Every structure is written in structure tokens, then in C-alpha cells.
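> run fold Phosphatidylglycerol--prolipoprotein diacylglyceryl transferase
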Amino acid sequence: MFPLALDPIVFSVGSIPVHWYGLILGFGALVGLFLVIREGRRYGIPQEFFMDMLLLGFPSAIVGARIYYVAFKWNEYKDNPLDVFKIWNGGIAIYGALIGAIICGIIYFRYKGYPFWRIIDICAPGLLAGQMIGRWGNFINQEAYGGVVEESFLRDKLHLPDFIVNQMYINDGLREAFRHPTFLYESLWSLIGIILLLVLRRQRFLRAGELFLSYFIWYSIGRFFIEPLRTDSLAFNGNSGVEALINGLWTPMKWLGFEQGYLDPAYGNVRISQLLSLLIILVAIALIIIRRVTGQAKAHYSDPIISSKTPASDTLMPEGAENTQRKVLPNSPTETKQPDGEDKKE
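> ok
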């Protein structure tokens, strides 16, 4: 007897089902918000600013993620356009979510008078936390999984608990088999990334924007190597040279005993997320270098964050940051100007 999949519906309110997928995404957003508020407090930024940001950014991310996914899967939706709105069945792309959230952030931060790079730096660990938790929604829906593996690989090599192993027994319409838990690989990669970002943001050398760009680099490296394990990748028919380059860079995974998931040649030969990951890594590194060389990244991560719409006197120095303002001790001599124009020590 084969193990049964988890029910994607938690409960129903009347005729309206409440899906695990939506609850998990919401929980991930709240955890990310918690991390952002805690860090924002060090800079004197009110939590209401970040709560409003979530209220605007979360739906923007969902819309962006869905548009991105549907755009590359339009043949599956053109005959049933109403299915475009059924996101509880899965089918969102993380890069689309980031595009939607970033566009929203640019507009919102400008409206509030805050510099984009400073606020997006604060958001970086929270974004990664949301992605880490959100991947468990894919687990419940049995989507974003990898190619076929033996049950012993999951139990004996990865030492996974029964509830994960059982859920990875999937019927994809062609065969029933155990699959790579790619959702778990990406979730763990994100967890390590969060720890690295939390350590990195306390380093004095870090400049404005570099934490966010480091987040993009870290996530994209993981996505590049994990994506080929999947069997549901968005893809296109690309140049054979590009295909050879990407496959060559993926070779270390073969040395570790991994094999790429099946990709229908009629659908494409280059996975979009892999190519996009490479481009993001290169662009992020280039931006870090260019911003430093041109002086655009003068501010450090630990410097105060000042809104152009907030009086400077209301701005707090982040904890642990060096206060460069001149301090006058109670008993220290000060210079005062006398009526006759001569300086006098008091």
C-alpha cells in the first residue's frame, strides 16, 4: 500500500476551502516582517512603516509571481483564463515575486522619503525567510519536486522523516515514484543564507545596497544548482552554446551523484531560472563594484537612515554605530564670543 499525500486543504468555512499553501505563504510573510521590524527598530524606523510595506508589497509580490509564471505557461491557461486566478493550486515564480515586490518598494520608499538601497538592505534577511518558509507550501501541494529517486536515498542517505518521505511519493501523470525534495534543498539553502546575512550586516566594511545584492547572489547560486533537479522548470529553446555553458557549470552536481530532472526537448533546452540566476549573479557583482568605484555606495550599512520627510533630530543612530557628532562634556572649556569680538575661555 502506497503512502497517502497530505490534504492541501486545512479546513473549510462553509463552501470556502482554506488551503495550507495560502497559510504557509502568509506565515512566511509575517516571519519576514518580524525580522525587518526588529532591524528597523535599531534605526528608529517605526514598525508601522514596515507593516504598511507588507500590506502593499505582499500582494504586489503575488501578482508579479503569478504574471511571471503564467506568461511562460500561457498555452496552459489561454483556454481557461479563470484558472489564472487560482493561485492556491500553486504556480507562482519567485523571481516574478521579487520583481513585483521591488517595483512596489521603489514607489513606496520614494513616497516615504527613504533611500531605496538602505531600506531594501534591512528587508533582505526577511525576504529570504519568507522564501524559506514559502517552499513548504510547494511541499504540501506536491509541486516543484525533482526527478525520480529511490526510497532508500530519502530515508538512508538524507535521513528524512516519514512525513516528508511519504509526501515525496508522487504521481505526475506518467508514473508513481519517489522524488527529489527540491523544496527542502532550497529551504535549507535559504536558512544558511539568512545566517550569513545576519552575520554580514554587522561588518563595518558593508556599504549600502550590498546586503541586498549579497542576498541575490546567494539565492541565485542555490537556485542555479537546484533548478535542474526539478521536472517542472520553465524553459525555452536557446542557443546550443548557452545550453553547453550552463550544463558545464552544473557538472559539480554530477560529481556528487545528482542527475538532472526530465525536461521535454519540445518545451525547451534551457531552464529560464538557471539562465536568470547566472545573469543576476553577474549583475549583482558588477553593481557592487561599480557603486564602490563611482562613489555611489558612500553610506555604510551601519550609518543612520534618514527620511527626507522626517526631521533629522528624530533620526536614531543604529546600536553599535559610531557617533561622529562632537560631544561637549559638562566641565570642558567652551568657546564663547564676547561683545568686543574677542574669544574667551570659560
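The first helix runs from residue 20 to 42.
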